Amino acid sequence: MANEKSPENRPLTGWLSRFAPGVRKIVNRRDTPDNLWIKDPDTGDMLYRTDLEAALWVTPSGRHMRLNAPQRLKVTFDDGLWEEIAPPDVPEDPLKFSDGKPYRDRLSQARKAAGRKDTMAIGVGEIDGVEAVVIVQDFSFMGGSLGMAAGEAFVAAAQEAVKRGLPFVCFTAAGGARMQEGALSLMQMARTTLAIQELKAARLPYVVVLTDPTTGGVTASYAMLGDVHLAEPGALIGFAGPRVIEATIREKLPPGFQRAEYLQEKGMVDRVVPRADLPRTLGLILSMLMDGKRAA
């Protein structure tokens, strides 16, 4: 009929309208977040976002989901408070690189998606009462890839620790070097190593927390040069990925290969620590390495 209402404008009728008169108002809300429910990658169960946040983004199945830089800093520092240190600026796209899409466009897109200028974030605050400089690698920004900006940020953070006489903590998460910066990216492996030597010369602790995933040139440099190496449960840690290794050696890898627990068993990781226990564990380690000195 000509006067028949379209389905989207048809009045709500039946038992639903009698028992829930406000249902149309709820359904039509525009402010409902699209990611209210998050799928557990292990079980497929739908998890309520608020509950997942309260659990520090650890699923009931035990999966430690990836955190972005602000989330990591918030769960690490006491009361979620820290002083932010801005990483230094570096030249953008020095090689005028394009892989079908200009590198500048990729940077712009990544910055818009991640809400930050590059992968590294630096904060200063207390971890279980011990003041420390913390640098976090954000995997959501171009896979946490190591480029000039990341290397410069690491050097600046290490030097800030030396300047303040504080221990230095690094949370790693990376797919490797940033190919769009070529050899300039690989040079950051050497530069970060030299920055760690400055910490050692100042007799300041350098503690690494390996998170999922930590691979490539990051593993081959500052990720494995700590005084103590902690790791989150299930984190993938290695140089090349398991599939690349299997294809190269034409053999099946052992169960759990390159996972945090496997590396602890082989001596490459000192301890695997659940996320909820990390602040307390870091506080104890830093306190011992700093001879019991804590913030006033």
Rounded to the nearest angstrom, the radius of gyration is 23 Å
Q: Which structural class fits the helix and strand makeup?
A: alpha/beta
CATH fold-level name of the largest domain: 2-enoyl-CoA Hydratase, Chain A, domain 1
Secondary-structure arrangement, i.e. CATH architecture of the largest domain: Alpha-Beta Complex
Large-scale geometry? globular
Going by CATH, the homologous superfamily of the largest domain would be 2-enoyl-CoA Hydratase, Chain A, domain 1
Strand order of the largest sheet: 3-4-5-6-7-8-9
Report helical residue fraction.
25-40%
Number of strands: 9
> Could you tell me the mean pLDDT?
90
CATH class of the largest domain: Alpha Beta
Reported for the largest beta sheet, the result is:
7 strands, mixed
Descriptive account of the structure:
This protein is of the alpha/beta class and 296 residues long. The chain is built from 11 helices and 9 strands. The strands form 2 sheets. It has a 7-stranded mixed beta sheet with strand order 3-4-5-6-7-8-9, with helices on both faces. Strands 1-2 form a two-stranded antiparallel ribbon. The protein is globular. Residues 1-13 and 23-30 have low confidence and may be disordered.
